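# step 3/5: fold
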Amino acid sequence: MYFSDFPFPERYESFITRKDVLDYLNMYADRFNLRPLVKLNCLVRNVRPLKDDRWEVTYLHKPTNETIRKVYDVVIVCNGHYNVPIYPEVIGEELFQGKKEHSRDYRHNGPYKDKRVLIIGAGPSGVDLTNQISEVAECVLFSTHSAVVAKQTYRENVIKKPDVSRIVDHETVEFTDGTTSRCDVIIYCTGYQYSFPFLDDSCGIKVEDGVIQPLYKHIINIERPTMCFIGLPFIVAAFLTFDVQTKYYCKYLDGSLKLPSKEEMYQDTENEKKWRSEKGISSNKFHMMGSLEQKYYDDLAAEAGIEPLPRVALKIKLASKDRQATDIQNYRRDRFVVLDDDNFILYESACDYPECKET
């Protein structure tokens, strides 16, 4: 999770805390003297292109409640996709009288003490919340169809359930296997949707079925290349994605990267859609990387002439995922030591680090 030009402090563990991440970002800002360049407490209301290829940005300065308009040469959209929750439609949902939440709202497990909690969704958030809430809850009903989760071992008060078929009454949920369970809280760990409410229609960006278009390499607005998006891909090592994408775009800004013609960029995007379809990837997962992640980074590096991402980074990510699948309770105590750009040593928590497994 660190940027290539500023490694983590040696005191950090392999699995860092939220506080560590915040401290690291503050240290990064101080190291490169970024604070004078950043305007905080500004809510962007509208972004629209001008005739001279520049951008008018309208924003609210919240401390003074003043609306300000300024013109910029480049707009880089970095609002991410972990803010606007996706809530699935559940039959009978209006009957439920307990609390309904999204993983976005979770801060700590205190409010769930002695509760019966239903968690829907088996992505990273679903797994983490199940693990944390089960420390204090009466029981956790973990609703998922994930084959990986089916093999994982959780605390005794975690009950694995299939998908929810409907809500029966004020506290009862029915699952697709016909069983029913009572719960006090439902937490949806069902992901997020892309949202850019501040972009004027004249920007030419559309979000349709989870796909942002028209973009080249999931980054550059094909029609207006002085606008780009950082961090759209999902199932990625996020900070590494930000790092590589930003370096790529900076090469365009300084003139060392020459973009193909509009026609060629559109064709490249269509070729990728076709290629993904042939691999069985549904159209609404166009920005998903997963096993395609290293190839994506390598393609960006090759086109922009930047240093490729060391393969050890994603090797560690995959090794961590394997450890999570086999030891969900303890894998965050593992330690990884990087040897070089291709190799690392894994110290597993179970053996308290006296021995190591070299990969």
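# step 4/5: annotate
The longest strand covers residues 42-49.
# step 5/5: archive (pending)
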